[in-house]
Design brief:
This protein is mainly alpha-helical. The protein folds into two domains: about 100 residues, no CATH class; about 190 residues, Farnesyl Diphosphate Synthase (Orthogonal Bundle), CATH 1.10.600. The chain is about 70% helix and about 0% strand. It is built from 13 helices and no strands. This is Phytoene/squalene synthase family protein. Keywords: Transferase.
Length: about 290
């Protein structure tokens, strides 16, 4: 396959798999945008395989993380791959020096899911969020031009990914439970006297709302940390990151405002609202560039 064909296939993945990330990626310059699509293609494939889904939908047979790890390491080693997500990863790595440790970290999150794991503490939850999203934030930062040894900026990028994942977890509590997973820390649930089976009982509505409020409050903390790193990015990358931060943050905060009704239907951010977030993000990106 040519580079153009691989990029086109990666774009199809993001077109079908993430409206929010696709919208934010349009703000990148062309090279960064295409590399973001390449990375997304691999991440989306790993997520789909582990969940038995296609572009985040469906409920099929779940795959094996060890198989994904083997194929990923072959792609890193430069072996010829047949599946498009691994071709996309090989192409990305040929153009951008992303350390293999971030790929391995991302797969560790899927391995936790495969094991039926649930966080015991808030610290456990933060580590999981780093694996499944923070590591992706680090890889995104590198393909935006951040040096792989700039640990301070990469830590800020990891915090951005963690903020995104916390919003997703807050939004998807009921959906995750239906899939046999729970990302609410056990010590929080024990504190409020709820279990997976009783979390959505009417008598536990206040407990559910209080637990999820803790998630939403944590989103803001990680968002503020992430903002400290945007000044290191090129202008268009700053704009894209700040817009994505507002979009994903809006999801979490809307869940917090809706209370129990947040899980009656999937919380999303509409196209017009996404565009509205670009304006303050543009202004913030300009100011950050002067720091």
């Amino acid at each position: 396959m040519t580079r153009e064909e691989i990029v086109a296939g990666a774009y199809e993945a993001i077109q079908n798999g993430s409206k929010s990330f696709r919208a934010a990626s349009r703000l990148f310059d062309r090279t960064t945008r295409e590399r973001a699509w390449l990375l997304y293609s691999w991440c989306r494939h790993c997520d789909d395989v582990c969940d038995g889904q296609t572009y985040g939908f469906g409920n099929g047979v779940r795959g094996n993380v060890s198989v994904l790890r083997g194929k990923t390491h072959r792609a890193v080693a430069g072996e010829a791959m047949t599946e498009l997500p691994f071709r996309a990863l090989s192409l990305l790595l040929s153009e951008c020096p992303i350390p293999e440790r971030f790929l391995d970290d991302h797969l560790r999150g899927f391995a936790l899911d495969e094991s039926g794991w649930q966080p015991g503490t808030e610290e456990d939850l933060a580590l999981y969020c780093y694996y499944v999203a923070g590591a992706v934030g680090c890889m995104m930062a590198i393909l935006m031009g951040v040096p792989a040894d700039d640990e301070d900026t990469l830590e800020r990028a990891a915090d951005l990914g963690i903020a995104f994942q916390l919003s997703n977890i807050a939004r998807d509590v009921r959906e995750d439970l239906a899939a046999g997973r729970c990302y609410l820390p056990l010590d929080w649930m024990n504190e409020f006297g709820v279990t997976r089976e009783t979390l959505f009982d009417d008598r536990n509505e206040d407990a559910l709302v209080a637990i999820v409020k803790r998630l939403v409050d944590s989103v803001s903390v990680y968002e503020e940390s992430a903002r400290l790193g945007v000044e290191k990015l090129p202008f268009r990358s700053r704009l894209a990151v700040l817009s994505a931060l507002r979009i994903y943050g809006a999801i979490g905060r809307r869940v917090g405002r809706l209370g129990r009704a947040a899980w009656d239907q999937r919380v999303t951010v509409g196209k017009i609202q996404k565009l509205a977030y670009v304006v303050p993000s543009f202004a913030e990106a300009v100011v950050a560039g002067r720091s």
